[in-house]
Structure formats: structure tokens, C-alpha cells
Specification:
Helix content is about 0%, strand content about 50%. With about 70 residues, the chain is mainly beta.
Length: about 70
């Protein structure tokens, strides 16, 4: 099961997301304000270890975030 393990709100509207990963696998980080329309925040993120983190900037407001494994 792929789950975000840590989500930290940083300064300057930045958010850091961490999830368990498999070295060499590629993931996609998606965000949404309504749970219906999802925006890709990081392109293709290739894991280099057992845990991957990615930091992105939001434009304020409440965001939903999810991670997907790219086959």
C-alpha cells in the first residue's frame, strides 16, 4: 500500500511530502483543491532509496495530496 508518511508545511507556501519507496521506481505527486481535479506537482520522481521526499510550492488554501507509482 502506497501512503504518504509525512507531510510538513514549510515557510513560503512550501510543502514537503515523504513516502516509502523502492529504489529505481518512479512516482508522481498529485495535488488538488477539490478532490476531483488533480495537478501534477513534480513530474516523474525517481526513487533513490527506501524513502523519498519532494518539496513543492502551493498558492495558499487547502490542498489534498496523493502519490502514484508510475508503471
Amino acid at each position: 500500500k502506497l501512503e504518504i508518511t509525512t507531510l510538513r508545511v514549510l515557510s513560503n507556501n512550501r510543502v514537503e511530502v515523504t513516502w516509502p519507496s523502492v529504489t529505481g521506481k518512479t512516482y508522481r505527486l498529485l495535488g488538488s483543491t477539490d478532490g476531483k481535479t488533480w495537478q501534477n506537482y513534480g513530474g516523474e520522481i525517481r526513487a533513490t532509496g527506501a524513502q523519498t521526499s519532494y518539496t513543492f510550492t502551493i498558492n495558499g488554501g487547502f490542498y489534498l495530496v496523493k502519490i502514484e507509482l508510475i508503471p
